[in-house]
Amino acid sequence: MSMASSSASTPTSRAAAPLKKAAAASRRAKTAPAAKTPRVGAKTKQATGASASGAKAQDAVAAVVPEKTERVKLVRDSFTMPKADFEMIDALKQRALKQGREVKKSELLRAGLHALAALGEAAFGAAVAAVPRLKTGRPHQKKGK
Q: Torsion angle of alpha carbons 105, 109, 112, 114, nearest 10°?
């Protein structure tokens, strides 16, 4: 019984597909094609006799356009830390402001990671040992709420 109901819906959707294609084709035919803009550096009928100033202008345009860089995939995460460590982030942000640079929490944490990665094995071990271990997870809420 389920095959009969699924096969009954298939012919109507197949019949509708050519109608949608025809409607889209008629919309495309009614609209005028957009005027093409010449590419930067492309030779046009006027620019076939390229002068030195034209070449300099193209070089200037090429110098202004930055090269595309790969986007870095970002990962969002959350964690728990003692209030004293959280206040230390604010103190470090104020320290950066005194040097003329505004930083975000994530920038400070990433800078700390890079600083830890640059340490030798003994210094890294000492830095990790100086940080007390915390319970993982979210803090418990009061039962009255």
A: -120
Give the 3-state secondary structure of the chain: CHHHHHHHHHHHHHHHHHHHHHHHHHHHHHCCCCCCCCCCCCCCCHHHCCCHHHHHHHHHHHHHCCCCCCCCCCCCCCCCCCHHHHHHHHHHHHHHHHCCCCCCHHHHHHHHHHHHHHCCHHHHHHHHHCCCCCCCCCCCCCCCC
Mean pLDDT over residues 60-68, rounded?
Answer: 65
**What angle do the packed helices 105-118 and 83-98 form, to 10 degrees?**
90
pTM of the model: 0.47
CA distance 31 to 29: 6
| CA atoms of 26 and 21, how far apart (whole Å) | 9
